[in-house]
Amino acid sequence: MAHVDLWSDFRKWQSECRWVDLSCEISPKTQRFGSFPPITLQTMYTVPEHGFKVDLHSVVGQYGTHIDAPSHFVHGARSLEQIRVEELVMPLCVIDKTKEVDANPEFIMQVADIEAWEKEHGIIQPGSFVAFQSGWTKRLDGGDMNNKDANGVDHTPGWGLDALKLLFEKRKVGAVGHEPLDTDGSLDKARQGFKGELYVLEQDHFQVEVMVNLDKCPPTGALIFCGFPKIKDSAGFPVRCYALCPKNSED
Question: What does the pLDDT profile of the chain (251 residues) look like in tens digits?
Fold first, then answer.
């Protein structure tokens, strides 16, 4: 059997690629869902005093850029430790609807939006990670991710249920991701609750929320990598996602 040197092969072509970090930095100031508490960090041991540094973190699973495992909404479904490593690397498709969201913060991604994107970039391939680029995470620092009005009502974009059904049932995608705190936009949440998010997780697939830097990725041609702790029975955790993009795709 011929010897395969993956590292050498990677070094040959990585000069033609660039890395994009798709995860936000998290701190106690990070905006989060509802009444979730902020992350806390307690330093238990320090280098000057003990010769090593150890911190105790307390953080809810759905915090910052995070993964939602199927068990987040579906009782008895797969949790983090049951997600296979081969599911964590996927072709990345980015559907840019920033202009539409700027014009209408309650924009909902529809089947027609996906089909229009496919006419320009090709049919989404099975096993792809499809990300909804909205520019929403520009609100992470000093803005309002919920975009509340004077009456405290949210106005946020999201995935339409029919669009998600197209992706999972017909395109057979591996996962989806987006910038807002929720899968469902405010209009859909008011009508039907978290029906879109429930649908995704019922398909035994995961999703990633609060993604950043999608504007630095091409519509197609990149790879996404998702990493997180293998915590037994956990329904979610802050995730480090990053993309490997062709250099010739830089804006």
Answer: 567 788 887 887 788 899 999 999 999 999 999 889 999 999 999 999 999 999 999 999 999 999 999 999 999 999 999 999 999 999 999 999 999 999 999 999 999 999 999 999 999 999 999 999 999 999 999 899 999 999 999 999 999 999 999 999 999 999 999 999 999 999 999 999 999 999 999 999 999 999 999 999 999 999 999 999 999 999 999 999 999 999 887 55
Q: CB of 159 within 8 A of CB of 125?
A: no
Structural domain that includes position 231: 6-249
Report the CATH number that the domain containing residue 102 is assigned in CATH.
Answer: 3.50.30.50
What phi and psi, each to the nearest 5 degrees, are found at residue 80? Answer: -55, -45
Global pTM reads 0.95
Nearest to 189 by CA among 214, 154, 218: 154
- Please indicate, yes or no, if residue 61 is contained in any of the structural domains: yes
End-to-end Cα distance, the chain: 42
CA angle, corner 76, sides to 39 and 203, nearest 5? Answer: 90
Burial of 40 (0-12, 13-18, 19+ CB in 10 A): exposed
> Phi first, then psi: what are they for 250, rounded to 5°?
-65, 140
In a domain, 1, yes or no: no
**Which residue numbers are catalytic?**
72
Give the number of domains in the chain: 1
Please name every residue paired with 96 in a beta bridge, in sequence order, or none if there are none: 133
